[in-house]
Amino acid sequence: MLRYILRRLLWAVPIVLIATFVVYVALRVGTDPVASYKRVNQRASAKKIQQYIEANGLYDGFGGYIKGYFQWLGGFLTGDWPRSIKGSREVWPAVKEAMMNTLRLGITSSVIGITIGLTLGVFVALKPGSLRDSATNTLTFVAISTPPFVSALFLQLFFAVYWTRWFESPLLPTSGVYPPGQQGFDVGLMVKHMILPVTVVVIQIVAVYTRYMRASLLDVLNSEYMRTARAKGISERRVLVRHALRNALIPIVTLVAIDFGAILGGLIITEGVFSYPGLGMYFLKAFENGDFPLMMPWVFFFTILVILFNLIADVSYAVLDPRIRLD
Amino acid sequence: MSTTKRSTKFAALAVGLAMVVAACGDDSEYTTATTAAAVETTAAAAETTAAPAPDTTAAPETTGAPAAEAAMRITVDINPDAVWEDGSPVTVADFECTLNAAINTPGSISTTGYDKIIGISAGESDQQVVIEFSEVYAPYKGLFGSLIKAASVEDCNDISTDFADFNGTSNTEWLMDSWSPSQLVYVPNPNYWGEAPKVERIVMVPFADGDTQNAALLAGEVDFIYPQFYAGISDALADPNVTSKVEFGGDYEGFYFQSDPSRGGPFSDPIFREAFVKSIDRDAVFEQIYIPLSEGKGKLLNCGPIVPGPYCNDAWAEGQFDPEGAAALLEENGWAKNADGFWAKDGGEAPTVRWIINTGNVRRENTQAFLIPLMQAAGFNVVADNCDAACYFQQRLPSLDYDMAMYISTAPPDPSYLVPGFTCAQIPTEANQQQGQNSTGWCNEEASAKLEESDVTVDEAARAALIKDALTLMAADRVMLPLFQFPKAGFWRTDKLAGAVDGQLNNYNAFNNFSEWEDADGDGQIIIGAEQWPECLNPVTECANSSWMVWTTAFPISQGVWETTNEGTYQITNLVAGEPVVEVL
Q: What is the ipTM metric for this complex?
């Protein structure tokens, strides 16, 4: 297993390089960092523009792209990050804060949402066509069809605005990571501020994973090897847990791994509605300014994340399905 | 957020308060939740007309020694009690640093006015500042709107890397305690020499989404918001504990017509332009678009690219809508309607009028939907030619790539912005490296001369007369059509906030009198919601090109010689001992 993981990690290196290079080129072509710099700094002198080009390795031509990419990569790995084009700010503190906020929101939502979704999926798959199955199906369709900004506004109105009218103070805050004026770390306040945004994301995740799990488990439950297992006299509980669930989870694991990046990326709307300073808002702002030094670390982070979760998916396969040999 | 085409809302520092054209006004952020921030900021950086022209010539190095050929001199006596947050006195060195930073810092967003200063020196003491100008500069009150503390920066000639994420200097009631992407905290400046604030702490928090900001106010999480006004906002914020005040400030919206003959657009023909403008029923547009928006409080703007006040002569009040006159004028000049019903000259092709707005701005899209059929029925082939805010304000308008445009500008108290916006020399050309800011391309030599003369006329009555004359010429040339003076509104919770909350809502400095506000609920702080958030705090570089940046991070901690008032005038601050002496030499 360890050998497999190491081999996959080694493979991840060229994949990261290729993926980030492709994105690097796409960003260079799509956002034209030099033009963006001139637009943001309209009175920048020619000397200043040249300094920006050299600091960011924004050389022309395919050779220039390769040289620029490796210059950027070298700086990135050694911590010598170029400053943002707007305000000449250090990039790492901004990335770090946004990344922590997004990871906190994304991981919490994913863990809660996937756990509830899978449980619900099992729950309804055991009695297909029953009232609970129909009711859950209907609710999941409603949840999937409800855009996050609608559920967010509804939750804000109910738990903050109307709650204040009824009881003179909000039950849950509408926005932010902490209440205004809060200084320093406070896990209680942080959790309180995460409840509504997490709920919005969880609603979507639960709906999706309930449907996935239900379909996957029904498929497994109707397979021939399940009949064989039962015919061998294995208890129903053991049939369900050892055979059915384990097999039904195999495709779900892939989805979880692939979805995780999508969930983090999809937080943009939720972060916007809840004024939650995460990577979504970070990227929107950076993209709007064409701020190349801010965008590249974002891209790198997501590339690494996707590759990492794919590795986790592959390893999980092996654990769940003994037919898959790691080496 | 407002509209101010490109550049310069100048920050605290550079052009000071008045010459800056704020970028508040684009209300497109209310159209969607997720794109709000992007549109806002883009518009903020771009949608202004009233911006001083960028100085394309090499900025002069300044020295402390006055030059002999001065044409104007201003002597400022600094208040002997005026000190910085560390107790050190405000001196001539801070004025000199402010000047050098504005002039020489790479990326300084404007040097206008400062580039006419040829020397700053100490008078009888280092608390008397003698400023000498190479020529008479009438909008001098817009200079030194806030000061940079010389001791706080390593090199006053380049402060581009200073104040990236904190500004601990202060010569006002407030001291910045912390700043982050999530909040900004001010505490009282213990060394402030004036009246102390009535509250222990001011907290500002960003809201990228207008609906969330409204919800936060209704839920009592913030005490005050200063939102972009839109139709239905009063209903959205209806609550027994929320009150508001609506005033009409410096924001105004209008139609603009691309008149540069060298661009060859349809409006480069003054006859066609006149007929076109005479065919626009402004009253109908106003009733359809602006009466619902202003909840019945607004009225049609007749001043031109300026708001009511000492420089407005209502030059657009008469003779603008005259469809019969328009048709007669065209026919007299060889125009006739073609088979499609559009006006064409001498049997040629009917010109197409490309009307540009920023996509997603509901009000402007509604205006197009209302007016285009009317104009087509009148024989003008008007087509919508829209693009996103960045494309509109940062590319199409500056490059004069449009025939008809619609946007908001913010007029600072001083009308000097008319010179870069509407004089012949400011039309982007090769000669000025395409840096001119006259994006209408309008050139009337007589009007330009009057506007340029107004810039060197210190006598206020004479200056006003010159401006009014130029506006009259502009109205006659039909280069633009004013529509509406936009409301400015503050909403606040009466159970949390008291005092002079509504005292300065119309001020160019916005709500910066919060030292006079009272903490009604006794929680020790006042929380203000901000629709936009500065990405850095440098007062002279690109970050200062945003209303919200200067409102939230510059004005509260830095004052200069003059400040703007709620009535759209200037007054001296308590940084100075008395009215500065201005001498035309």
A: 0.81
